[in-house]
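Many introductory courses stop at the sequence. We go one step further.
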Amino acid sequence: MKKWVKKNVSKEVVSELHKRFGVDALTASIFSRRGITGGEDLMYYMEEDPRFLHSPFLFAVMEDAVNRIRDAKDEGEKVLIFGDRDVDGITSTAVLYDYLSSMGIDVKWRLPTGDDTYGLSRQAIDDFSAEYGSLIITVDCGISNNEEVSYAAQKGIDVIITDHHNPPENLPSPAIILDPKLPESGYPFKDISGCAVAYKLVGALKFSTDSLYGQEICLMNVRPLNDAYAIECLKLRNLVPAGHLEEIIVPGTVSISQTRLISFLSGQQIFVWDAPVIKKQLLHAFGDGVEFNMMDIRPEIAKIIPGVQSLSLLAIKDMSRIVRYEDKPAGELDGFYNIFVTFILKQQKKQTDTSLNIQLVMLAALADIMPLRNENRILVRRGLDLLNKGIVRQGLKELLSRLSLLGKRISSTDLSWSVIPVLNAAGRLGQPELSLKLFLSDDPAERDRLAAQIIELNTQRRQLVSEAWVLTQKQAAQSFKKYDEKLVIAIDEHINRGISGILASRLVQQFEVPAIAVTFIDNGIAVGSMRSCRDYDITVFLDQFGDLFLNHGGHNFAAGFSFKKERLPEFLDRIEQLAPTIELGDEGNLSWNIDAEIPHNYLTPDLLKLVDRFEPFGEANPPLLFMSKSLKVTDAQILGKTERQHLKLTLDCGKNKWPAMFWGEGERFHRDFDTGDSLDILYQVTRNTFNGMETPQLIITDIKKTTS
């Protein structure tokens, strides 16, 4: 039986979170228990505006990628977007194709279909070369395609790689590579999806239409000190800080030529806030022989952001939402930078808005099980907010309608369980183009037909999983013993290659160790999927098969590989050698980690507001788990006709009576407790929707009979 664990929290930390960020004590205690106490971490739970996303130009080579695509447009080149067959690859392709098409680029897309292997292929390169194509952009793949990228170069085709998988030791060359997992990528957050990388590229392309693109500009401020002036300069390139300078000038003691200002400011456009005041201060600092060519940006910003016309930079700094999350005191120049960037982004949004594509980024993050922290929270939450306001992207709208979800309140969990498996089914059964066309088609009737077809494929996919599960159970159990309960393997030619990843995941759930599922395709190739758990990095494990594999790659806990069928004995020999080296963390879930204990008088529907603060839930952000003691059972019903029946309870919480569901635990009624007993319970607070009406309910995780 799992232990119930509620970590102690520091009163000082809770008080500081309340004082600094204005969160109530209960929310602050949950943040503290989850280790979310730093300003930057907290920001992504408190904010949801896209302004808080990282700049695409933090990728060190983003400008190179943008320039190459702009050159392709200017020269009328043919461009190929090469994606992957899963949800991340499909959405990546759709996002980039949408925008390149809108630019007027001669662009086409291609996905692996049928028994095609993962990643860019020679055949795809040959076919594109025959059409006189000259630029391939990979999305959600490419980082391991060393040979293919070299082959493309021999054909005179340039390659831009946008990917998010773990990079190999030797990178593809020659190529422009956007991958946040590259050590030198420059990007501050490594765990975004492939679709998010494509979305960042689109954002950079949008910005490239602005006159500021590729230009170095400077924000300058002058602050009077006791007997001197502090002249602060922040150099920007594509809105990203590229240099900082501060000079302290005592009037009459130094000429401007003796400072670093001339070399720092040379050739740049200088923006200031309140030019008359700045000019007066510079006159005092250097005398009347110095002339600064500057632009007062305040009037322009005031047109977009009303209310700042009469404010000083000191006041703007204090009103900035971003600086409140900084762990160091913010200065006037910080406030200037934040409002300047906000102004430029708002100005751009007025010209063009691709906000609905953020729903594709949302799907990709959930499908690829990206950790719901940092900017992933905003990407997913923004997509959900739009969706729940009835603003739904084409393709997704038809699918939700077919699944009877359109118009209902949808959570990240709903998407993960009900929508993403359906979208993935097309790719798993060798027809990923169906899901892509669903998102790209301008014909509503075709989108509806495609949605129906994809749902039917998902029915077939479920049947294939069931058959493979029955087929491999005995073999998996034997391998579990053979490899000292560190690994399970299922190998069978009857496993459909499209469900090998699902099968491996189910084996992980059953045995709580890493799992491998392998099958064979018609051209004599073995293809496999590996899934992991208990903190074991499978990419390190699979790298040891590098000489045997045709290709391999993926994430720390989910990866794929292929090898020639005749090398299966070598593969199994290597497994036997390496299995003993697997070191697993503690066996999964030995305890329930409680976020907060809720007294009876706090158990009200208002708890949903607190739950909403922590949405979306998923990887690295599990649903909130509450505990309450001595709740009296006033009613109990056993539901369902299956082997594991469910239990519906009504609990007396004082002012409120709460309905509660205990899934699959019907047998515990009369055995562990009866009506009239008091229970200590672990639970989640959720919404139940029935006939269009939403009511709060508890989902019970565990119970104990209250002891006096």
